[in-house]
Write a structure and sequence with these properties.
With 120 residues, the protein is an alpha+beta fold. 25% of the residues lie in helices and 22% in strands. The chain starts with a helix and ends in a 6-residue tail after the last helix.
Length: 120
């Protein structure tokens, strides 16, 4: 009987030596990726973006790729333009964030930037 009690105690203690998973930070919230609300941006060329948002705050090029950045009081939008074959580069992806770097819905950012001074 005494052997069973020791065996049961040893089995109970064996469960305590496992790896404890680390808790994830609750500080960041994943924003789901959706193209809804981005119809006015995806597929645009640089001139179309300028007409929609006004002059870009930053224009960066790397090879044939181009990134136009538009900033407003609510958010920052990065529009990535890539050529397809010999065609003019067009927006294939957009990313958005609040001025402090926090996540924001991309469609909400597009809507806010179209209402900023200089946008149409």
């Amino acid at each position: 009987m005494k052997g069973w009690a020791m065996l049961a105690g040893a089995c109970a203690l064996a469960g305590c030596g496992g790896v404890v998973p680390q808790a994830q930070s609750a500080g960041s919230v994943a924003v789901p990726y959706s193209s809804a609300g981005l119809e006015r941006v995806i597929g645009q060329n640089a001139a179309g973006l300028t007409q929609l948002f006004g002059q870009a705050n930053a224009d960066m090029r790397e090879g044939t790729a181009r990134k136009l950045q538009f900033q407003g009081p609510i958010c920052v939008l990065d529009a990535y333009l890539y050529p397809k074959g010999s065609a003019e580069p067009r927006v294939t992806y957009v990313d958005a964030r609040e001025p402090d770097g926090s996540a924001i819905d991309r469609a909400s950012c597009v809507a806010a930037l179209t209402r900023r001074e200089g946008g149409k």
